[in-house]
Amino acid sequence: MQHTAPASILSVHNSASSRAGILGEVLESTCACRMHKYQFNRLSQISYNQVAALHKRIEEIVEVAAMCGVNVICFQEAWTMPFAFCTREKLPWTEFAESAEDGLTTRFCQKLAKKHNMVVVSPILERDDVHGGTLWNTAVVISNSGSVLGKSRKNHIPRIGDFNESTYYMEGNTGHPVFQTQFGRIAVNICFGRHHPLNWLMYSLNGAEIIFNPSATTGELSESLWPIEARNAAIANHCFTCAINRVGTEYYVNAFTSGDGGKAHHDLGYFYGSSYVAAPDGSRTPGLSRTQDGLLVAEVDLNFCRQVGDKWSFKMTGRYEMYAEELMKAVQLNFAPNIIKE
């Protein structure tokens, strides 16, 4: 992996001058020997060495971010592991799961956060031992003081193509939390949640000024949608959005099928990177590379959320009470669509 210089400076202005940024596109080329064995918060020696190497790489990138003055950084979805949910194999992939509160990766990120006075958003595969070892796709939010501020679980799980994630973990039960940090109010809309406008809306209604969208998505499936969705969400919700993807191709020894009659294959497809930040007025940064990992740092002014909101008044004119009433009817078993016929 190569060091990639920051694309631009991101400074978040709230009541005081501060900075925020996102980390995207960590290149992972996966094979059978690339297994981060994790079980009961303990690692085998081989897997520990592999995880330590990945942590070291991330530490180097965070060091670059710190030199740029970054105060909020977000990694890609499930950044500590290959995105192996396409395989439908439970082992060894479920062994990547770890505690969101005190797992190895969370403790590692706590040290980085405290060292650099930086809020760290760390999306991982979570094992919830308090509730029977349930697995979740979770973003851990760590304060710049080094304490775990909280977590946000993935609300929407895809059931399309090779994205067989429902085989591994459950839909999130944390709702739409917004985290008040020293550098602004942030939320985390994980991957497939970006396809659901109401998901973005609820984070916004809860007060989010910046919504991160850590993802792992491939070209043939979603690249035509990628430049549009987070940008549209920024406009519709008067907030900044940060779309983050991984990059490269992950190869698996055991071939798998998509359930569509096609031939068995060894990879999920090409993760096309192209991370970007969008503003409430629809402007956006250039995307990061499609072919290598990188750090995107972009400058934003949180006052802009209110200024654009005052101009367009999408929330003031939202008529949420009307939609709440109609949605309440729509989820009932006896719902009848309001179709007027001749």
From TrEMBL:
Domain of life per record: Eukaryota
GO biological process, one term: beta-alanine biosynthetic process via 3-ureidopropionate
EC number assigned by the record: 3.5.1.6
Domain CN hydrolase: 38-302
Pathway as given in its UniProt record: Amino-acid biosynthesis; beta-alanine biosynthesis
Record's keyword annotation contains DNA repair: no
Catalytic reaction equation(s): 3-(carbamoylamino)-2-methylpropanoate + H2O + 2 H(+) = (R)-3-amino-2-methylpropanoate + NH4(+) + CO2; 3-(carbamoylamino)propanoate + H2O + 2 H(+) = beta-alanine + NH4(+) + CO2
UniProt cross-references to InterPro entries, sorted A to Z: Aliph_Amidase/BUP (IPR050345), C-N_Hydrolase (IPR003010), C-N_Hydrolase_sf (IPR036526)
Entries under Gene3D superfamilies matching the protein: Carbon-nitrogen hydrolase (3.60.110.10)
UniProt KW keywords: Hydrolase
GO molecular function: beta-ureidopropionase activity
UniProt KW Hydrolase keyword: yes
Matching PANTHER family: BETA-UREIDOPROPIONASE (PTHR43674:SF2), NITRILASE C965.09-RELATED (PTHR43674)
Similarity section: Belongs to the carbon-nitrogen hydrolase superfamily. BUP family.
Name recorded for this polypeptide: Beta-ureidopropionase
Organism: Chelydra serpentina (Snapping turtle)
